[in-house]
Amino acid sequence: MNWSISFEPLLSWPLFGLLFVPLLLLALVGLWFRQRGSALRFIALLALAAALLNPVFLAEEREALKSVVALIVDRSQSQDIGDRTKQTDEALAGLQQRLARFKQFDVRVVEAGKSEAADERTETRLFSALEGAFRDVPPSRIGGAVMITDGEVHDVPAGAPEFNAPLHALITGNEHEKDRRIRFENAPRFGLVGKPLDMTYRVISTEGDGAPVDVRVSVNGEQVSVEHATVGQPMKLSVTIPNAGRNIVQLGIDREPGELTDANNRAIALVDGIRENLRVLLVSGEPHAGERTWRNLLKSDASVDLVHFTILRPPEKQDGTPINELSLIAFPTRELFVEKIKDFDLIIFDRYQHRDVLPILYYDYISEYVEKGGALLIAAGPEYAGENSIARTPLNAALPALPTGEVVDKAFYPRLTDLGQRHPVTRGLDGSASEPPHWSRWFRTIGVKNPEGEVVMKGADNRPLLLLDRKGEGRVGMLLSDQGWLWARGFEGGGPHVQLYRRIAHWLMKEPELEEERLTADGRGMVLEIRRQTMSDDPGPAQVITPSGKTVTVKLEKAEPGIFTGSLRTSEIGLYQIANGDLTALAHVGPINAPEFQDVVSTENRLKAPAEATGGSVRRMAPSSTLANLAGGVALPSIVPVRSSAAASGDDWIGLRTTDDSTLKAVSRVPLFGGFLGLGLLLLAIGSMWYREGR
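The line above is the sequence of Glutamine amidotransferase domain-containing protein; the predicted structure tokens follow.
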């Protein structure tokens, strides 16, 4: 209960001063000259002034407020190591029980590190959680904070925390913990496919430098070498990037006896493989309206080195043209088709026919080139159906279909077959979803018999239009029309010739994105996304092996023709292995080499400076501690309420501050000159003055 007196004047202060200041001066003059009755007049004046000032006696009833105490509990993944989770749970229960004895504390428990956000699971951000706990609390009501953690905190402020209250930290884990880890020191983000890529790494141990350690090096899940590393020293590493697109380089070391965890015995680097310029040999036959379509497309691609020659006239055509008006140099056919044929990624014959420009033996070299992994594309015109067709050369062993000799000159819309709707070369071509397709017509189809491979597009009378086939280790494509230039010229609105031609060329050159059967996975936040590309109607579920070794089945749902997808929400950070049928894939969920696992040894050092800056303390809770008070299997300090200026920690106790803040519940109001009491005192004073004056 608080007591006070307040004035509630009946007149405004200016009017009150104007009225009583002259009277007060007269009364004081009378007292100075000791006039008779001046003392009674002065008392009467004071009584009248008191009545007009209206003093009020106030009695306030207040309720003391509680200090807010935050218990910040570290639930990050490093707390799952050993007995740390058990120690954390026991410490939390013990602190809550002890704080419940003190009615002056309002306890708020905040668990940090359990969020699904990737950045909050890969770093221990306890001070962010502490700031959130006190966001709505006035500074005068903050009693302090207690952190239960292993000490590996990644958002420790440079100076003292921004609140005037003690910060205490109770450290889980045990003293003299032992751990060994590996990390990349330098890992380039990009590398050339098939070329060595230089990296550096380091093996770190709590026991300092030691004997050499065997380091297993894997690329995309396949072990490629075992390196010998010296602990504590930067080591050089050279790996060859096998594929275009994402590649996963993983380093691994064996778990040492007595080591805390092997979660950081692996290091991951993601390297995007980039192909060197692709070498394409384009051989054009008789000039035609679409002769430059392939050339323009390939020349516009900065990643393609194009070698192009055109047979403008057959050797037997002798018209007397002077030799100096013909080609300035002899075309190096032997060098291209014999000596350096293996250097080309793709050979294209565009309306080419055999006219003895190339020796017959060279076609055999081309067939052998395909069998050993090369790529061949036939852009067929009427020549393919004629007597000089390249199908009548040794090249026929590599061709997916032989001509019937028929050329169908008939308008038609190129359409996707059922296979073509699922095949990555033709799936989702712009304009293919409507009927008729939203592109222009073509007017010629070359007839073939007994086509091999996959017919992904059909022409007039449902004849094969685009064939894709595998021959040995290589690939062959055949486009049975020379009318693609109509799309390039914008006839009847044109069509997606660039999209189609580029996909054909890249499929022939074995780009991973265009494989018919492909399994990929990627981590987005804490979600593993799986994508299965297939020609089948149902690939079945995917099997996922988590970083901890658990096996999870993920159902794959059809997203579009030839594409099935699935996702898995997870709480583990690390490398996941995905399998579906004969295909496997690797994916990393969460940031690469997250700070959460870079150092997992419990420590008091990181929190010591901010705790001491607030008058708090940092101490371990292991049973080997010198503290006497045990809560279950951990040693907890006693809790003592302290004033704001008092010490906040001792050898076996921690202090939390109490607040002087309170809330007003009720006010009792008693006017001192109100009612008959005030009237009586005023009349008594004035009557005494008159009585004295009358004598």
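Note on the example: The longest helix spans residues 13-32. Residues 518-589 form a domain with the Immunoglobulin-like fold (CATH 2.60.40.10).
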